[in-house]
Please model this.
Amino acid sequence: MRERVAWALVTHLVEPRPAPPAPRAGVPAPARLRGLLGPLLAVVGGAVALRLVTGVGFANYDTLYALAWGGQLSRGQTPTYDVP
Model:
């Protein structure tokens, strides 16, 4: 029953994705990969810049349990309050 309730709560948020476009005929694979190189370098560069600016991240006790409980709730389970 809990799974049905959880599924009903999240299914209205999910829209079906359209099918990915077919590979373009006549365009070689390396040319398509070059088109992805710019965004990929931007993401990697941004991640490196954030790491240099902010340093090491730290997830404290409350944050870790909030993530664990969120995972349990997303699977339709009630959060467990036991310490492993």
Summary: The chain has a mean pLDDT of 80. The chain is about 60% helix and 0% strand.
